[in-house]
Design goal:
Layout (H helix, E strand, L loop, with lengths): L18 E2 L13 E2 L10 E7 L1 H7 L4 H9 L3 E6 L5 E3 L1 E2 L1 H6 L1 H17 L2 H9 L4 H14 L7 E5 L5 H9 L3 E5 L7 H7 L5 E4 L13 E4 L9 H10 L6 E7 L3 H14 L18 E2 L2 H10 L2 E3 L8 H10 L1 H4 L5 E8 L1
Parallel strand pairs: 7-8, 7-10, 8-9, 10-11
Antiparallel strand pairs: 1-3, 2-6, 3-4, 4-5, 5-12, 11-14, 13-14
Length: 344
């Protein structure tokens, strides 16, 4: 996934040890970057919101040596706030690291291949019995019920599948056609799935590998948009591989970075080692888009999708009961906004 930009860090004071604020447009020497316009409205009217400093990223991600090495080499990310639509996004994205760097891709690819093989069908079947994947299975069954077909008639693609939990569970549940798409994957990931006893998953690393007429009954696109240089490319792809009957599960992390920054600053000023790291884990170099619901809804509408209500209309008392059984269960203690979509 995308990381930061190479350049000088500069010095920061005690109060701004983790977040460095400034009014001028940020520019660092020796950076080869793509300075993006607003990812929603395409305007170039913005203010810098804050900077992910080296000290911040090393502290918050100190459990991953490889991540720390990348943080040291690439950065800082500069968060911009659009003055037109208020969208927050990383402006100075390094194109090579974000899309085409063998250094980053090879690391992610090798790490995921090892984990794919380790987590074979026996592992999943045992964990399913232990209810480890209860929520994921519930989501797949919910999507299947909305698609209104038998499970062995359904095609599914996980767009940005990572380690492939949804594709693996789809095979175990009996889906007919399963595609796992992730640009980080190399060609031999197909072999990795087969070695871990998953025989029916087709792995691709470029959406253009699909035929032009390919449509899916179900699309899963979760934990993806926050990593994408172009969120609009995601929605363009979703539109291309769906029809009016396609059911899409889509998620966006709840990252109100402007609201949270003041809280984090206070924690940093008090004592750095008292920061509740898990609460703010979604602020790291892999995340380059910080959209709120209004911006996600704009994309949903702009690309011709609609949100499907997944709970039935009824009396208030009955509604609350059914809400707990369906809507709440699909989003357990979530730090994400999840949507079920259909093409108009």
């Amino acid at each position: 996934m995308p990381y930061g930009a190479e350049g000088t860090w500069g010095e920061v004071g005690r109060v701004t040890m983790f977040f460095s604020f400034h009014n001028s447009k940020y520019q660092s020497k020796n950076m080869s970057v793509v300075n993006r316009n607003c990812i929603i409205c395409d305007n170039d009217n913005y203010n810098d919101l804050f900077v992910f400093t080296k000290e911040y990223t090393n502290h918050f991600e100190n459990n991953d040596l490889r991540q720390r090495e990348l943080n040291d080499k690439y950065g800082p990310h500069v968060i911009a706030k659009c003055n037109i639509c208020n969208c927050k996004y990383v402006r100075n994205v390094v194109n090579g690291i974000s899309q085409n760097s063998n250094e980053t891709h090879d690391f992610e690819s090798e790490r995921s291949k090892k984990k794919i093989i380790k987590q074979n069908k026996d592992f999943f079947n045992k964990k399913i019995k232990d209810n480890l994947f209860e929520n994921e299975i519930y989501k797949l069954k919910l999507l299947k019920s909305l698609a209104n077909k038998k499970i062995n008639e359904l095609s599914i693609i996980d767009y940005g599948c990572g380690l492939g939990e949804f594709p693996k569970l789809s095979e175990i549940l009996g889906f007919k056609k399963i595609v796992a798409f992730d640009p980080m994957y190399t060609d031999d990931h197909q072999i990795s799935y087969e070695q871990s006893n998953f025989k029916n998953i087709n792995v691709i690393n470029n959406i253009d590998q699909l035929s032009k007429n390919t449509k899916f009954d179900i699309i899963v696109c979760t934990a993806v948009i926050e990593h994408a240089i172009s969120p609009k490319k995601i929605f363009s792809d979703l539109k291309k591989i769906s029809n009016v009957n396609t059911i899409i599960l889509f998620s966006n992390p709840v990252m109100d970075i402007e609201r949270d920054v003041s809280k984090i600053k206070k924690l940093v000023a008090l004592k750095a080692n008292k920061i509740k790291i898990k609460k703010y884990l979604h602020y790291h170099l892999g995340h380059i888009n910080f959209m709120l619901g209004e911006q996600v809804n704009h994309l949903i509408n702009d690309y011709g999708f609609k949100i499907i209500p997944i709970y039935p209309n009824s009396s208030k008392k009955s509604f609350i009961k059914k809400l707990k059984k369906t809507y709440v269960k699909i989003f357990p203690h979530s730090t994400r906004s999840e949507y079920v979509l259909r093409k108009l």
